[in-house]
Design a protein that fits this description.
Blueprint: E1 18-20, E2 23-25, E3 31-34, H1 37-40, H2 49-59, H3 72-84, E4 89-93, H4 96-113, E5 121-125, H5 134-140, H6 143-146, E6 156-159, H7 164-170, E7 175-180, E8 183-184, E9 190-191, H8 194-207, E10 210-214, E11 238-241, E12 252-256, H9 258-261, H10 277-290, H11 295-316, E13 321-327, E14 330-335, H12 339-348, E15 351-352, E16 354-356, E17 360-363, H13 371-394
Parallel strand pairs: 3-15, 5-6, 5-7, 7-10, 10-11
Antiparallel strand pairs: 1-2, 2-3, 4-12, 8-9, 11-12, 13-14, 14-17, 16-17
Helix pairs in contact: 2-10, 3-10, 11-13, 12-13
């Protein structure tokens, strides 16, 4: 008999009742150090007082009206995102997949509006994860996401990750743009170099196509900049954001330049819930925190501490840890064992982390994590590595 909850998740045997900062608590009072962060979502930690107050205050006033009417909080958040980024305009959605889907639509509409409707194809990178809608699974082209769902949506050309020659070769008269994550999350915390990002910007400019970034996971302060592409000193035409932008409340956004968005006229796109008053109250509260003085420098400092500690553990446990990768507090540990084994070992140490491709363990703590909590995480990873080593010895 099928479960009342559709069984599409391989859930861990854990359930949490409440959270506080970087900690989660079970009903039995067991405390877990959360370095999964809801998969890079809880940038401000669990139950942050400012976010809780913003949501409660808005909940007492107004929940939903739809986008038939102006929404003050939406206008305010859009203005703030524009002021803090490359963008000239913002569209609000409910999730990352919706944001990426909207970005794909925008790229096609842009070329249609420019008199080039034949330009609809998007170049993507192997290893990408862009969501689970039909367009986004076609863009990612991973068999585990596409298998059993029939013919894929046409219009995507995938090339090896970061291969500039392959990108150039794939550009043709039907190409609308290039879509990629500056740092692949599900793909194994693989980061493009700043130089590669700059070259991709040059290539799109030369070809007259759009640079579309998926910063659903690596954006909103995760790397120590508001958006990861800022490290390269380049700007995209369109960017999809989500996860951290809502701090745990469902929220996504498409950020775009005026040029890229100029064909998105009345009725060309929409959302019933997107940008509703509840989401906007939380989104503005998240931005209060992320844009506060010294917040991003704090992320960089904590990232340096975590990276140095992981490099030390790599030297201590060479039979377990092969490599350390990533940027900011989006870090990956390439393991010689499977990530599932490490996740289980960490769970025994009351610590949470996330698996990824290429045998990588993802560490995605709330960005408010402290020095002491970083030290505690490193100690627990050390113990988990020791347990795995002992298991190998006992075999």
């Amino acid at each position: 008999m099928i479960d009342p909850v559709l069984p599409t998740y391989a859930r861990q045997p854990l359930s949490f009742e409440r959270g506080e900062g970087v900690w989660l608590f079970t009903k039995d009072g067991e405390r877990y150090l959360d370095f999964a962060g809801g998969i890079a979502v809880t940038v401000a930690g669990h139950a942050h007082p400012h976010l809780v107050d913003a949501l409660k205050t808005q909940a007492d006033k107004l929940w939903h009206t739809s986008n038939l009417y102006r929404i003050e909080g939406q206008e305010h958040l859009a203005e703030r995102l524009v002021a803090a980024s490359f963008a000239d305009t913002v569209f609000f959605s409910n999730s990352g997949a919706e944001a990426v889907e909207g970005a794909i639509k925008m790229s096609r509409r842009y070329h249609d509006g420019a008199g080039n409707p034949e330009r609809y194809r998007i170049i993507t990178f192997e290893g990408a994860f862009h969501g689970r809608t039909f367009a986004t699974i076609a863009a990612g082209a991973k068999e585990k996401l596409t298998k059993g769902f029939g013919p894929m949506m046409e219009g995507f050309d995938q090339v090896p990750f970061g291969d500039l020659d392959a990108v150039r070769a794939a550009i043709g008269p039907e190409t609308a743009g290039i879509l990629f994550e500056p740092i692949q999350g599900e793909g194994g915390i693989r980061a493009l170099t700043p130089e590669t990002l700059r070259r991709l910007r040059e290539i799109t400019n030369e070809a007259g196509i759009l640079l579309i970034l998926d910063e659903v996971q690596c954006g909103m302060g995760r790397t120590g900049k508001l958006f990861a592409h800022e490290w390269a000193g380049v700007a995209p035409d369109i960017l999809a954001a989500a996860k951290g932008i809502g701090g745990g409340f469902p929220l996504g956004a498409i950020l775009a330049t005026e040029k890229a968005a100029r064909a998105m006229t009345t009725g060309s796109h929409g959302s019933t819930y997107g940008g509703n008053p509840l989401a906007m109250a939380v989104g503005n509260a998240v931005l209060d925190i992320v844009l506060a003085d010294d917040f991003l420098s704090h992320v960089q400092q904590m990232a340096n501490q975590m990276r140095q500690g992981l490099e030390g553990l790599k030297d201590t446990h060479p039979g377990i840890i092969e490599d350390v990768r990533g940027v900011g507090l989006m870090l990956g540990v390439k393991l010689r064992c499977g990530p599932a084994q490490m996740i289980a070992a960490l769970r025994d140490e009351r610590m949470l982390a996330v698996g990824a491709g290429e045998g990588v363990l993802r560490l995605l703590p709330p960005l408010v994590v402290s020095e002491d909590e970083i030290s505690e995480a490193l100690a627990r990873i050390d113990k988990a590595c020791g347990a795995l080593e002992q298991n190998e010895t006992d075999k």
